[in-house]
């Protein structure tokens, strides 16, 4: 297969396995998604989904969030880890949303990236999942699989994102980002990787990696 055929093989396989991939983080609007994604840094989606209902019961919008102190937010979100930094970010960005954006989450990448504790990946997730604007957020699963499939060199997530956007059609980015994550978790994990299960890597994987299994 040439590169174009390999890309199409990935698209077709993922479409067959995950025709309707759900957004893993529970949310009801752009603000609750933004907070959930921020909390998910270095934490599992499952853990975040256990904590967000407790937080959102008290504050599911920036106006209610700033009624809580940073310490109160930190106490609630402690189980997701990095709670001092995350609580500070949530408290400060809620103030900014009220002061600058009438309490609304801006549908603008640069504006999102300027918010405290909101990096490029978080902003990208919010753009595509909350506002349906094409973006390709790269998490550890996508970074790993793009390398295993020989679609990127694995040097940096920035490079992986550039390569993903170059290889995959823009109209597929939003869905593909989710499909690759689900595939990585189920078929091509970082630990306990079973090449017999990983049908995509078996077919198109980086030869130097596949040699380990031959």
From TrEMBL:
<keyword id="KW-0411">Iron-sulfur</keyword>
<protein>
    <recommendedName>
        <fullName>Endonuclease III</fullName>
        <ecNumber>4.2.99.18</ecNumber>
    </recommendedName>
</protein>
<dbReference type="InterPro" id="IPR005759">
    <property type="entry name" value="Nth"/>
</dbReference>
<keyword id="KW-0234">DNA repair</keyword>
<keyword id="KW-0004">4Fe-4S</keyword>
<feature type="domain" description="HhH-GPD">
    <location>
        <begin position="39"/>
        <end position="186"/>
    </location>
</feature>
<keyword id="KW-0408">Iron</keyword>
<dbReference type="InterPro" id="IPR023170">
    <property type="entry name" value="HhH_base_excis_C"/>
</dbReference>
<keyword id="KW-0456">Lyase</keyword>
<dbReference type="GO" id="GO:0046872">
    <property type="term" value="F:metal ion binding"/>
</dbReference>
<dbReference type="Pfam" id="PF00730">
    <property type="entry name" value="HhH-GPD"/>
</dbReference>
<keyword id="KW-0326">Glycosidase</keyword>
<dbReference type="GO" id="GO:0006285">
    <property type="term" value="P:base-excision repair, AP site formation"/>
</dbReference>
<comment type="similarity">
    <text>Belongs to the Nth/MutY family.</text>
</comment>
<dbReference type="GO" id="GO:0019104">
    <property type="term" value="F:DNA N-glycosylase activity"/>
</dbReference>
<dbReference type="InterPro" id="IPR011257">
    <property type="entry name" value="DNA_glycosylase"/>
</dbReference>
<keyword id="KW-0227">DNA damage</keyword>
<dbReference type="InterPro" id="IPR003265">
    <property type="entry name" value="HhH-GPD_domain"/>
</dbReference>
<keyword id="KW-0479">Metal-binding</keyword>
<keyword id="KW-0540">Nuclease</keyword>
<dbReference type="GO" id="GO:0003677">
    <property type="term" value="F:DNA binding"/>
</dbReference>
<keyword id="KW-0378">Hydrolase</keyword>
<dbReference type="GO" id="GO:0140078">
    <property type="term" value="F:class I DNA-(apurinic or apyrimidinic site) endonuclease activity"/>
</dbReference>
<keyword id="KW-0238">DNA-binding</keyword>
<comment type="function">
    <text>DNA repair enzyme that has both DNA N-glycosylase activity and AP-lyase activity. The DNA N-glycosylase activity releases various damaged pyrimidines from DNA by cleaving the N-glycosidic bond, leaving an AP (apurinic/apyrimidinic) site. The AP-lyase activity cleaves the phosphodiester bond 3' to the AP site by a beta-elimination, leaving a 3'-terminal unsaturated sugar and a product with a terminal 5'-phosphate.</text>
</comment>
<keyword id="KW-0255">Endonuclease</keyword>
<dbReference type="GO" id="GO:0051539">
    <property type="term" value="F:4 iron, 4 sulfur cluster binding"/>
</dbReference>
């Amino acid at each position: 297969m040439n590169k174009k055929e390999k890309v199409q093989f990935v698209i077709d396989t993922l479409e067959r396995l995950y025709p309707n991939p759900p957004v893993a983080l529970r949310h009801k609007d752009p603000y609750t998604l933004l907070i959930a994604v921020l909390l998910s840094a270095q934490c599992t989606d499952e853990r975040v989904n256990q904590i967000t209902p407790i937080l959102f019961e008290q504050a599911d919008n920036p106006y209610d969030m700033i009624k809580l102190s940073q310490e109160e937010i930190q106490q609630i979100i402690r189980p997701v880890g990095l709670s001092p930094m995350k609580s500070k970010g949530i408290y400060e960005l809620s103030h900014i949303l009220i002061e600058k954006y009438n309490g609304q989450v801006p549908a603008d990448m640069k504006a999102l990236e300027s918010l405290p504790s909101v990096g490029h990946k978080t902003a990208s997730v919010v753009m595509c999942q909350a506002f349906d604007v094409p973006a390709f957020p790269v998490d550890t699963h996508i970074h790993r699989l793009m390398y295993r499939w020989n679609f990127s060199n694995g040097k940096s997530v920035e490079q992986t994102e550039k390569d993903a956007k170059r290889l995959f059609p823009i109209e597929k980015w939003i869905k593909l980002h989710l499909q690759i994550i689900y595939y990585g978790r189920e078929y091509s994990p970082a630990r306990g990787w079973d090449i017999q299960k990983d049908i995509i890597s078996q077919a198109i994987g980086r030869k130097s990696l596949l040699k380990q299994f031959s």
